[in-house]
Automatic annotation (TrEMBL):
Keywords: Cell membrane, Membrane, Signal, Transmembrane, Transmembrane helix. This is Integral membrane bound transporter domain-containing protein. It is found in: Cell membrane. It comes from Adineta steineri. Coiled coil: none annotated. It holds the Pfam family FUSC_2.
Length: 703
């Protein structure tokens, strides 16, 4: 152990801090690449071409998600390292540009991911009509200039070459000026479109106006994020100082309680190790399997938190053993008992698979393939010709196969914990997190606008705006941690024998869609919170804004609209959660929840869910109609003002006020987010409905 620690520290040390820094730089560069593809898709005049670019953006997004999956594990490992010192060594050329802690880096990536994913969803649902064509033509040059300035900022963050502080300040100023120019162009283009609509007596679709405002809102949010993380931003310095003064509460009950599930897992490990020890303690078995040590080792290292996780480890170990055994036999044929030749032949093999070990899809397989030929060839040398290499290779394969076979049986029949059950538990927790986000949305509204119904909120937030943003950031990190675990559990559940309790095979495709829809839902909830905070920056109370901006023709009673919608969405989340509880395996109910329920599917279950989806669809239609009526009322107000011989710039109030214009953009982004939130919940409900039918009915049985 001491030698291993010494070698790890002296010879090419790989710190978790460096790994996080590399993942941060990689994710930041790929997010910019994804951002560029989305901008190009938005500017396309052809829907097919746009969807091709969005497909490329989806592939890049999947690469980012893969890179971020082990981030929580790396952050936990980095707690044992001098992270800030290592960061300063790693980023010594960029400390005057960006100097974030590891947790702040994760916050930045997840926040950027949320905004860029929202842009992706908006462009995917965009209507490529004449209005969009004319609008993008006017915005194209400004958008491309903003894209270029933002690429320069990202390059300054992650490039190996250093940039001077003055040059970076110049880049930040250019980025802010580029967005100001884009916003002015957006306002001018909107003014031209409204004047055209009023003069030609045509109709302006609310979906077009709302989606474009939503797009601009997220562009501004990204610019603000990139500006705030720089070392020159005073607001960020104040935020860091305020965080240092916050004390973290320690819950002693969480540290010292003994969950029933952990006790069962400990008993299971004892039984598995005890069975493996039989092959060493019983003389006949020990003689047959060369002391039985490899069988015991296999049983020890293939244990997992779930059946699917253990099966994944077993599969990787078996493949690694086969690959390593093949090379071990080749090494024996070439080198026989010559130690130096043996080491010379093993060296390139060790180098290749040590490299492959760092790749996500190889990992443990490459590690086993690396040490297997070492154990076979070097372990055989003391015996010489008394134990031929071919026999030794076959013996190692036989021991691994026997160990894995026994591990499969013990894993399945001794207190089994199936990944599908933990996956459904995780989905329930994620949906409850979304429900809490809906509650926090009301709390943020009440705290920001001093609403009288603040006693309805279960989550109490501070009045300070920065604390609201800190709460949202913490909530977002918790959500993405659940999603990362959920993606892993989907992979593990696909290897389990689900035919024991499901009417059809496990649908990996459907569960992956479910994961993606949960992300979309949370992003929209986060967008609503962000728009409310932005509106608060320019308006002390929302009632004053509704009565005085544009003659009071904005949609009134926002609190009632959010309350009615959130109540309906919470009911849908609760219904989906109950379905995942209903379909838990009997093993999970008995060994994990200490209950044994005989709940079965009844005809009203699916009918109730179908009615919930029908109501959501009607809500989407109602929101579209409501927003269209509000826009028509606003246009009618402008038309009546124009009839009084006023100019277009004086009629449309936000063209002369940056604050009013920012409120309008945030307001429209809020309305678009509520509609898309309802649409995402509807799609999630349809996916859950299909999964429920697959698992509990015979509707989709194969021939």
């Amino acid at each position: 152990m001491a030698i291993a620690v010494f070698v790890s520290l002296i010879i090419f040390p790989i710190f978790a801090t460096f790994d996080i820094e590399n993942r941060f730089n990689y994710s930041l560069s790929k997010l910019q690449q994804m951002y560029v593809l989305i901008i190009q898709a938005f500017l396309c005049h052809d829907k097919t071409r746009s969807h091709m670019l969005l497909t490329k953006a989806s592939i890049v997004q999947h690469m980012i998600e893969k890179a971020l999956t082990p981030m929580q594990t790396r952050l936990a490992d980095a707690k044992f390292e001098p992270s800030r010192l290592l960061q300063r060594l790693f980023n010594h050329q960029h400390l005057h540009v960006i100097d974030l802690t590891l947790q702040e880096q994760e916050n930045l990536i997840t926040s950027l991911m949320s905004h860029v994913s929202s842009l992706h969803l908006m462009v995917k649902n965009c209507s490529f009509n004449d209005f969009h064509h004319d609008f993008t033509c006017e915005l194209q040059s400004s958008l491309l200039h903003l894209n270029s300035c933002q690429s320069n900022i990202i390059s300054s963050f992650i490039s190996s070459s250093s940039v001077t502080k003055d040059d970076f300040i110049y880049q930040v100023t250019n980025l802010q000026d580029a967005f100001s120019s884009l916003r002015s162009t957006y306002i001018l283009a909107g003014l031209h479109r409204i004047e055209h609509v009023l003069q030609s007596a045509t109709t302006l679709q609310s979906e077009d106006s709302l989606s474009h405002a939503f797009f601009l809102f997220h562009l501004e949010a990204i610019v603000r994020l990139l500006t705030q993380v720089t070392t020159n931003d005073n607001n960020r310095k104040n935020t860091i100082n305020s965080k240092k003064n916050q004390k973290k509460k320690i819950n002693l009950n969480e540290h010292f309680k003994l969950p029933w599930t952990r006790l069962l897992s400990a008993v299971k490990s004892m039984i598995i190790i005890g069975v493996g020890s039989i092959f060493i303690l019983v003389p006949s078995l020990s003689k047959t399997f060369e002391n039985g040590q490899l069988i015991l080792i296999t049983l020890c290292v293939t244990q997992g938190d779930t059946v699917g996780g253990a099966f994944t480890t077993m599969k990787m170990r078996l493949i690694g053993t086969l690959l390593g055994s093949i090379w071990a036999y080749i090494t024996y044929l070439l080198a026989h008992n010559d130690t130096y030749k043996t080491m010379g032949i093993l060296t390139p093999w060790i180098f290749i698979f040590s490299y492959l070990k760092l790749l996500p899809n190889w990992g443990y397989t490459a590690a086993v393939a690396t040490f297997t030929p070492i154990a076979i060839n070097l372990g055989r040398l003391p015996y010489g010709d008394a134990l031929p290499g071919g026999n030794y290779v076959l013996l190692r394969i036989e021991e691994s196969f026997v160990g894995i076979t026994i591990a499969v049986i013990l894993t399945l029949f001794i207190f089994p914990t199936f990944a599908i059950d933990l996956l459904k538990d995780n989905i329930q927790t994620t949906l409850k997190t979304c429900q809490q986000s809906i509650v926090s949305m009301h709390s943020i509204y009440d705290q920001l606008f001093h609403h009288d119904h603040s006693h309805e909120s279960l989550i109490q937030l501070d009045l300070e705006e920065q604390k609201n943003e800190s709460f949202i950031s913490t909530q977002r990190n918790s959500f993405y941690s659940l999603i990362n675990v959920q993606r892993t559990l989907v992979e593990h559940a696909s290897l389990e024998p689900t035919f024991w309790w499901m009417k059809n095979a496990f649908s990996t495709k459907r569960y992956n869609i479910l994961v993606q829809k949960q992300v979309h839902i949370y992003n929209m909830l986060h967008n609503i919170d962000a728009t409310l905070i932005r509106i608060k920056e320019y308006s002390e109370n929302i009632e004053h804004l509704q009565l005085n901006v544009a003659g009071g023709h904005l949609l009134p009673n926002l609190h009632r609209e959010l309350s009615d919608l959130s109540r309906q969405l919470s009911d849908c989340f609760h219904l989906c959660t109950s379905y995942f509880i209903l379909t838990q395996t009997r093993f999970h109910q008995l060994f994990r929840q200490c209950i044994y329920s005989h709940n079965k599917l009844i005809s009203t279950d699916l009918a109730k869910h179908e009615q919930c989806l029908i109501d959501l669809d009607q809500t989407i239609h109602r929101l579209h109609v409501q927003h269209q009526i509000g826009l028509n009322r606003l246009l009618q107000h402008y038309l009546s003002r124009l009839s009084e011989d006023e100019s277009g710039h004086s009629v449309i109030s936000y063209t002369n006020s940056n604050e009013a214009e920012s409120v309008f953009i945030a307001y429209y982004a809020l309305y678009y987010s509520t509609t898309q939130l309802t649409q995402c919940v509807l799609t999630l409900g349809e996916t859950v409905h299909t999964i429920f039918e697959l698992e509990t009915t015979h509707l989709y049985r194969h021939f």
